[in-house]
Amino acid sequence: MGEKLPQVQGDPQLRRDTLSRPVRTLRAKMVLLGSSGVGKSSLALRFCKDEFRNTSPTVGCAYLTQVMHLSDVTLRFEIWDTAGEEKYHSVTPLYYRGAHAALLVYDVSKRDTFIRAQVWLRELEKQYVAGSTVLWLVGNKGDLAQHRQVSVQEGQSLANDRGLLFTETSALSGDQVDKLLLAVAHRVYECVGAQQGGLSEWQETPHVDLRRRNHLFASCCKVGP
Amino acid sequence: MDGEAQRATASWGNGTLAPGDHLRSDRAESPTPGLVEGTEPGAGQKSAMFVHAQSFEDLTAEAEEEVRREADINNPGDSEEELNVLVGEKEPHLTSESKSKEEDVSSEAWRSHRKHVFVLSEAGKPIYTRYGTEEALSSTMGVMMALVSVVESEKNTIRSIHADGCKVIFLTKSPLVLVGVSRTSQSDKELLRELQYIYYQIVSLLTLTQLNHIFQHKQNYDLRRLLAGSEYLTDNLLHRLDRDPGLLLSAVTCLPLASSARDTVSSSLQAAKSKNLVFSILLAGDRLVTLLRKKDQFLHHIDLHLVFNLVGSSSSFREGEGWTPICLPKFNTAGFFHAHISYLEPASQLCLILVSTDREDFFNMSECKQRFLERLSRRTAYQALKDALKSPTYSVEHVGIPELRHFLYKSKSSGLYTSPEFPDVYISDSEQERLMGLYQELHSSLHHPTRPLRFFYRCGERENLLAWVTSGFELYLCFSPLGTKALAVAAVTKLLKWIRKEEDRLFILSPLTY
User: Model ipTM?
Assistant: First the structure.
C-alpha cells in the first residue's frame, strides 16, 4: 500500500548497479511519538505519499509502509503513526517496543509539546537497549517561524545532551522531510542493520502483490457481462 | 483455500447458508396485516445479526427500571408522575440553529439552539457541551448538579423538568451525569435514549472500568483530558441522532445489492477468519454490505452505530491501516476490543472493520484483510459490489405509488431497515430535518411508555403521515397532502408487496458466522 516505484537517490552509476543485482529488503520498524496535533500523521503522509492534507486526529494508531532504496540494501519501513491523545497512551508501548527508529515529534510553535517530547524520551530510555533503536528528535511546523516558541538551539542542545539526532521539518511545505527519512534509513542501516539479527529480511507474500491482483481482476472483467 | 471454497459451495447447495427454494416460495406470498415476527419482509432466514433488535425499548428499559427501582425502594408510595419535578419558567425560548464551539454562552443565539446536551461528572465538573465551551458553563453545570443532588438528598431521583415548551432531561449514569435540554416535541423517553447514546459513546472510548477507576481515585478529575481530540465524535453522533433514521429505529440499513453478490462477499469474508476475530464488518459509507460474527456472539445495533460514527467521522483511516482499542459497550463495558479499520482501496467507500480480542493481533488482521481482498477480487461479485456503490439508494418512484413521497420500513427480527432517498420536496437540509422530526414524533407515539399506539394517521398541511407497528415490522410513510386515508391504507399493502419482492436486494437475508 502506498509504495512508490524504486526511488533511488545518488548518482546514476550507483542506480544502475542497484537495479541490476538483487538487493536484500529488510524490515525496519519506525514509530512516531509526540503530543496530539504536532503533525505526526502529516509527517507519515509526507514519508509515504509526499502529500499534505488536513487530517482528523488519529484514532489509536495508523500503520503505513514505505520502501527506501539505499545503495546496497532496501529498507521497508513499517511506520506506526501513534495517536498523541492521552487516552491512547496505555497502548503506545505496543508500538515502540522493538522499534528500530523512534521519531519524537514536537511542534516548534508550542513549548508544551517540546516538554511532552522529553517525557516520551524518558519513557523510551527506560526500555532503551543501546544500539537497537535510533532516536530522533523532530521539531515540526518549521513553517510557523513567526510563532516559534522553541528555538533551533534548544532542540539541538537537548539532542546533544541526550545523544539523539535532531532535525527541524515542515510537513506542510515538505521541507527537510525527504532528507529526514533518508537520514533515518541510513542511520538505521548503519546502527542496527550491521548487527547480527538486527533487521529481519522481508518476504513478499503472494497476498500483497497488488499488481498481480489487478491483472487478474482486469481479466475477469473482460469475461464478465 | 480451495477446500474452504468447496465447503462454502457445498453448504450453499444444502441450503444452510442461503435460503432454500421452499423457503423462498413461502416468503413470496403477499404479506398480510397479521404478519408475525420472523416472517415479515426483510426478516433473516436463519438468525438475526444483532442482539435483540426488536425496538428501542431495550435501550431505555434499563435506565427506567433503575430509576423505578430506586424510587420504589426510597418512596414506595410514589407514582411515576410525581417523580417529574415541575418547575415554572426555567429555560428561555429556543428557535434557530447554528454551530460553533466559540459562541458566547450568555447570548440569545446560544440559548436558542433546539437541543443542548451537557455531560458532567458527579462532582459537577463539566465534561462536554454541544454548544459553547465547557469552561464558560461551569456554573450552569454546577446548578444542574445541584438540582440532581437536592432531589437525591430527598431520597428521590430527578428525571425531567418541563417548562415553557422546553424539556430538561436528566440521566444519571454514575460516575457521569448527562443533561439534555430540548425544544423539540420528542418524548422524555426519546430524549433519554439520545443521552444514553452519548453515554455509550464516552464509554466506547474509555470503558466503564476505566471511568469508575478514575473517579474513585480522584473525584474532581477533569475528564476532558482523556476525551481531548474526540469531542468531534460526540458532535457527529448528536448530528446523526437528528438526521439518521437508523438511530431512531434502532436498526441499520444495507447497501442495495443482488443477493448472489452479497453472498459471495460474505463467504469471502467468512473464509478470511482468524482465531481472535469476533466481528468482520464491511461498510459502504453508512450502509452495511455484510457482517460476519463469531458463532454465539452478537453485535448490538448501538455498538454498530458507534462503529459507524467512528469510521464516518474520521479521515485518519484513509491514510493507512488503522488499529485502535474500542469498547463495544453493549457487548461489554469492561474491556477493549481491538479494531483493524481500513478501506479496501485508497479512494473506495468500502471500509472493512475487523474486530479482534487481542491487542497484538494487528498483523493477523492485516493478513485477514489481504486474504479477503485477494479472494474477492477474483470474483465477479467485486465488480457487482462496485457498481452497486454507484447507486447506494433508490427512488421512491420504483415502488409505483404516486402519492407516496418517502417511507421507513424496519424489519424487527433482522434489525434492518430500508428507506428511499429523499424526494425533491425534501431536498434541503432543513426540510429533511423537519421530516425526520415528524418521524420522531410518530415514533414517540408508537412507543409511548404508557399509551403506545399501533396505528397512526395524521393529516398535515404539507404532508400526510401514516405509522404502523406490528409484531413483525415498523412502518412510517409520508404522503402528499392531497392523498386520502383510504389511499394511504391501500398503499401500505402495495408497499409491503414491493418490499417483499425486493427484499433479496435490500436486506441481508442470510447472515453468516465464522
Answer: 0.81
